[in-house]
Amino acid sequence: MESVVKAVQKSIGEGMPKSFGLVIDGCTQATEHFLAVYACYESSDGPRFQLLSMAPIIDEPDDALNADGHAAAIARFLPFFGRSLDDVRFLVGDNCAVNKRLANLMGVPLVGCASHRLNLAVREYLAPHEDALAEVQALMRKLVHLSKQPSSAKKTALQPVLRQDTRWSSTFKMLARYFRLLCKLFDELHDVESISKKLQSDGLTLLDARDLLDRLLEVHPSFGNYLAPNAPIAHSPKFESAVVKMLGGKATRLTTAEKAQLQPFRRVAAAAAPLDDEQSTSFAERIL
Fold this sequence. Notes:
Elements: H1 2-15, E1 20-29, E2 32-43, E3 46-56, H2 67-77, E4 88-93, H3 97-106, E5 110-112, H4 114-126, H5 130-147, H6 150-155, H7 169-177, H8 183-199, H9 206-219, H10 224-227, H11 237-247, H12 256-261, H13 283-287
Parallel strand pairs: 1-4, 4-5
Antiparallel strand pairs: 1-2, 2-3
Helix pairs in contact: 2-3, 7-8, 8-9
């Protein structure tokens, strides 16, 4: 088995370019925190997202869950693929303090997760409606107990939907079942839901994401605290702005600072993403 692992690592390393990006995300199982790391690069067949590692961050007695611990964890496995931290050109991940600090330690830009920013914006938007949402949540909890009774199970297969603090979309699903109680709020979240789903689709570029968020800001200006191009939560706004201009065919409008951000990528030819001509009833599809 060890020989197979080494053979796979060698094959992956040979297929990777010298410079690449990393897509990172973490999850916790019981008391163990895991870090998933994907190599992101362009190949002759299109974009590639190669899983490099999904392992606990805490491996040595002195390891920690801070940015230094994340950097050490990544530095440990990259040599198996013939690479090092110096070969990483950018990071993609949540806009959390650890990831921002990690990007600073590595000296690379962080492309913040657009879905994460949208989640934070909607949570702030829903704050004034918390009392009404809490009442619906209380009703859902009562229905959960009722639905577990055998007599209820015989009448319907439908189950109540509860909110989850870490995923605003669960609020949308809960309101969908009882939208008559909060008609206005439910209607306002329709467009946000379509944007959220589109942001998670394959083949979406930074230009597409920026177009989606900009159009959503026209409808909900209050989302600007998190979704604006220069929002405080963004770690590398100049880098993202530079990439968006390049993808949009506006290279001549790059500022000096934006050009500097793209210097590590000067040998990569960026092409504008083709627009989809198909008509769709969803708000997100109408934008793109």
